[in-house]
Amino acid sequence: MMASNEGIGYLLISAGSSMQMGLAFSGPVVIGAMVMGAYELFAIVEKRTIGWAHRRATTRPPNLAWIVLTPRITTSGGRT
Questions:
Q1: Which of 27, 56, 67, 73 is the most buried (most CB within 10 A)?
Q2: Measured between alpha carbons, how far is 68 from 62 in angstroms, rounded to an integer?
Q3: What percent of the chain has pLDDT over 90?
Q4: What is the DSSP string of 4-62?
């Protein structure tokens, strides 16, 4: 296991041990914001590099009405 004397992890551990709850709870908020930012950044990079693999947002969803409207046939030959 590795340890350091700086960084967000160290800040969380030291704030929790010294009962600074405001600082201890703000750490996960900062980490969450960093994760959301990284996710958006990688989504942009992914769309620019392999945009051909993604469907366009203007395409229509498949018509699944035929599944609902198709009559079901039971094993006795009658319709349900």
A1: 27
A2: 13
A3: 14
A4: -SSSHHHHHHHHHHTT-HHHHHHHHHHHHHHHHHHHHHHHHHHHHHSGGGSPPTTSPPP
Segment 40-60, tens digit of pLDDT = 999 899 888 887 776 665 556
pLDDT at 37: 94
Measured CA to CA, the distance from residue 79 to residue 14 in angstroms comes to 69
Q: What integer is the mean pLDDT of 6-15?
A: 85
Domain ranges, ordered by start, for the chain: 27-52
d(CA 69, CA 47): 37
Work out whether the CA dihedral 54, 56, 59, 65 comes out positive or negative. positive
